[in-house]
Amino acid sequence: MSMKLSALARELGLDYTGADIDIAGVNTLDKACPDELSFLVNPKYLSQMEKTKAGCVLTSGPYADKVPNALVSDNVYMDLAKVVDLFAKPQGCLSGVSELAYIHPDAQLDETVTVYPFAFVGAEAVIGAGTTIFAGAYIGEGTTIGTQCIVYPNAVVMGGLSIGNNVIVHPGAVLGGDGYGYAQTPVGHRKIPQIGTVQIADNVEIGSNTTIDRAALDTTSIKQGTKIDNLVQVGHNVEIGEHCLVIGQTGIGGSTVIGNGVVLAGQVGVPDNIKIGDGAIIGAKSGVSGDVAPGVTLLGAPAMPAKQYMRAAGVCLPKLPDLFKRVKKLEKELAAVKAEAASGEDDE
Amino acid sequence: MSMKLSALARELGLDYTGADIDIAGVNTLDKACPDELSFLVNPKYLSQMEKTKAGCVLTSGPYADKVPNALVSDNVYMDLAKVVDLFAKPQGCLSGVSELAYIHPDAQLDETVTVYPFAFVGAEAVIGAGTTIFAGAYIGEGTTIGTQCIVYPNAVVMGGLSIGNNVIVHPGAVLGGDGYGYAQTPVGHRKIPQIGTVQIADNVEIGSNTTIDRAALDTTSIKQGTKIDNLVQVGHNVEIGEHCLVIGQTGIGGSTVIGNGVVLAGQVGVPDNIKIGDGAIIGAKSGVSGDVAPGVTLLGAPAMPAKQYMRAAGVCLPKLPDLFKRVKKLEKELAAVKAEAASGEDDE
Amino acid sequence: MSMKLSALARELGLDYTGADIDIAGVNTLDKACPDELSFLVNPKYLSQMEKTKAGCVLTSGPYADKVPNALVSDNVYMDLAKVVDLFAKPQGCLSGVSELAYIHPDAQLDETVTVYPFAFVGAEAVIGAGTTIFAGAYIGEGTTIGTQCIVYPNAVVMGGLSIGNNVIVHPGAVLGGDGYGYAQTPVGHRKIPQIGTVQIADNVEIGSNTTIDRAALDTTSIKQGTKIDNLVQVGHNVEIGEHCLVIGQTGIGGSTVIGNGVVLAGQVGVPDNIKIGDGAIIGAKSGVSGDVAPGVTLLGAPAMPAKQYMRAAGVCLPKLPDLFKRVKKLEKELAAVKAEAASGEDDE
Asked: Could you tell me which residue ranges the UDP-3-O-[3-hydroxymyristoyl] glucosamine N-acyltransferase non-repeat region domain spans (chains A, B, C) (predicted)?
C-alpha cells in the first residue's frame, strides 16, 4: 500500500512542505527509505534528521524547514499514531470461528467474532462484535467481553468477569486469578475463597503476562483508558482510575484505590489498602509507604518528594562516608578546642 | 442457594445475635444486601459497619453489638473462609476428560479427574483423584500430580516433577522450566543442562505467571502449606520451608534455603546460596544481602533490621541534605572559634 | 545408560584418578550414589566432598586428591556441562508433527520439525530443521525460526519475528507483544500501533514468562549468545548485545542500547533511551539513572559505583540516625564553647 503525501496530509488535516511524493510506510529516521515517512519529536535527534533518507518527516513547526519534505504537526505523537494506523497490518492470519476452538454451546458470540484454534470459550460467556480471541486464549464461564476487543494468544480471562469495549489483552496476561487471601490458623494458612470479580472498562490495555486478581468479594476494577504494561501485578479489590499509566513490573497491593491520570513508573511497589490521589506520579522503583496526595511526584523507598529523593539519595548519599569523616574530624577538633579552653581556664 | 443464620452459626460452631434471617451470599460492608453476610476485622471500618445494609456481620465480640445481627467469632478471617466456602462456586464449567484434550496413552489418570480441552498430559504422567486440569495446561512426561489439585488454564508443569495433594497452580504459572545455569567459556556462556526436578508438597499454592525452575541436579523444593503469590521467581535448587508466604514479584536466587513460616513481602530480592531462618520477615522491596537469622524482621537494600531502616531511610535520609548544611556550618563556626582562639593566643 | 570413567575422561579430554568405575549419572555431592559423578568448584563445599558417596568427583587439580576417584578439569563448570549433556534426557515425549496441531497451509516446516498438539503455526511462518514447538505454543504469521530451536509449552512468538538457530524460548515467554507506546491527547492515551519486529540471534535463551516487546517501528534486537532469565521485561526498540546475562525480573525501558558482555543482575531497572557500555555489571535491584560507561560495576538506586554504594548504603546509612545525634551534640557543644568564649570576652 502507498499513498500520496498530499492525501496523507489531507487525511490528518495537516500541511506539508516539499514535493507530493508517494509514501509506502513509516520508519525511524535512521532506517527509513525514500518512500517512507519518519518523525522527529526530540531535538536530540536533529542530527539524525539531517542525515535521514526518509521521503518525508512528520515534525513540529520549528524543525520543518530542516528537511525538504515535512508534514507539520502540533502533536507529533498523535499524528504519528494516525499515520501508523493507516499503514499498520494487525496481527493474525485467520478470521471467523475456527472449528478447532472450543465454544461451549451456551456461549453467545456475535457473528463477527473471530476465534482461533485451541481457544476456549466457557458456558454463558458473551463476546461482542468485532472481537478476536487468539489461539490458546481462555474465556471462562459467564465472562462478558465487549466489542472490538483483542485477546491475544494464551491470555487467560477467568470466569465471571466483565470486559468493556476496545480492550486489548496481551499474550499470557491473566485476568481473574485468585487474590492472595488467607486466614492465619494454628495449622497454617487457610485459603479464603476469592469469589469476587474483575471489571475492565473501555479502552483499557493489559500488557503481556500481567496478572490482575479477582476480588475476594466485590470487584477489582480498572477504569477506562488506563494502560497497563507487561508483568504488572494488580492485587484483589484494587481500583485503578481512568487514563492511568502503569508501567512494567509494577505491583499494587490489595484494596488500594488509585485515582485518575496517575502514573506508576516501572517496578514501583504500592502496598495494600492505601489511596493514591489523581494525577500523582510515582517514579521508577519507588516503594510507596502510605496515602499519596493528588498531583505529587514521589520517588524512593520509602517514597518521598522526587526532588528531595534525588538530592538525598542521588547527591548526598554517595558523599555520606565522607560526611562521617568530617563529623569525626569536627568532634576531634572541638574536643581539642575544649581541652585547650579548659587548660586555659586551669591556667587562670 | 441460601441458608438460615442459625444453620450457618451451627455449621461454624459460633453464636449469633439478632433474628434468624436467611443468608444468600457474602459481600463487603459497602456492597452487601440485606440477604448477605459481611464481616469486620479492622476497627478502621467501623463507620462502614454502622452504615452497612448487610443482613448479618461476622465480627469479634467487641463489635458484635454495633449491628442488629452478628455472627460472633474469635478468628474472623478463618470463619470468613468457612462461610465463603459454603457459598463459593468453583471456577469451571466442564467435568470429565474432554475428547479435545491430549492424553498420552501411557498416562495414568484417576477416573475422577477432569481434563479440559487442549490440555496436554504427557507419557507416564500420573494424576490423582479429584484433580482438575484446565484448558491449555501442560503436564509433562513422568510428572506426578496428587489428589484434589487444580491446574488452571495455560499453566505449565514440565516433565519429571512431583506435585502433592490439594495443590493449586494458577494460570500461566511455569513449574520446572530450566534453571539459569551456564559455564563461562572463551566463546560465550555454555548451557549446563538442568536435569533436576521440582517437588511441590501438599497444600501449596502457586500464583499466576509465577516461575519455579527445576534444579540443575537434585531438587527445587516447596514444602507443605507454603503460599506463593503471582509473578514470583524461584531459582533452581531453592528450598522453601513449610507455611511460608512469598508475596508478588519476589525473586529468590538459586540454591537458597528458606526456613519455615518465613514471610517475603512483595518485590523482595533474595540472592543465591544464602539461608533464611524460620519465622524471618523480609519487608517489601528489600534486597537481602546475606544469611538471615530466624525470627528477625528486615527491610531495605541492603536489608537491615526494619526499625533501623525506617529510622535511617524513612526519617533521616530525607533530612540528609540539611545535615550536610549543618556540618558545613559547624566546620565554618569551629574554624572561626579556632581562629579566634589562635588570635587570642597570638595576642597573648 | 552408563559409561566407563575412562571413556568419559577420553570424551572430555581429561585425566582421571582412581579406578575405572561405571558412571550412570550426575548428582550433587550430597545426593550422589556410588555410580554417579558429582562436582566441586567452591572450596566452601570441601567438607561435603569428603563425605560424598559419589563414585567420582569432577574438580580442579588442587582438590583432586581429596577423593579416591576424580576427573581433573581446568574449567569444572564447562566440563560439568559436557558431562551432563551426555546423561541428560531432553524434555518431551513426542516427535513429528501432531495431527492435533494447527499448521497454516502456507507455513513452511522442515521435515525434521516436531510440533506438539495444540501448537499454532501461522501463515508463511518458516521453521528450520530439528526445531521443536511444544504444546500450546503460538508462532505468528510470517515468523521465521531457525534450526535446532526449542519453543516450550505456551510460549508465544507473535507474527513477523525473526529467531535464529539454537534458540530456546522457555514456557510462557512472550516475544513480539506490542511495545508500550501512546500519544498523549486531551481525551486520553492514544495507542501508537507497534509495527516493528523482534530479532533474536543464534544461541539466545529466553526465560519462562519473560516478555520482549516488538519495536514501535524498526527492531527490538537480542544478539547472539545472550541469556535472559525468567520474568524479564525488554521494552520496544531495545538492543541487547552479544553474550549478555540478564537475570530474573530485570526490566529494560524502550530504545535502550546495551553493549556486549553486560551483566544485569536480578530485579535491575534500566530506563528508556540510555546506553550501557560493553562489560558493565549492574548489581541486583539497582536502578540505573543514565548512560553507563563500559566495564564499570554499579549498584543502588540511583546506581553508583558498587563499592561506594556498599560503603554509603550498607555501612553508613544504618548509622545515620546516630550521626544526626552526633551532629546535634556538636552543635550544642560548639554553641557552649562560643558562649563561653563570648562571656570570656565580655569578662575582658
From this structure: 20-85
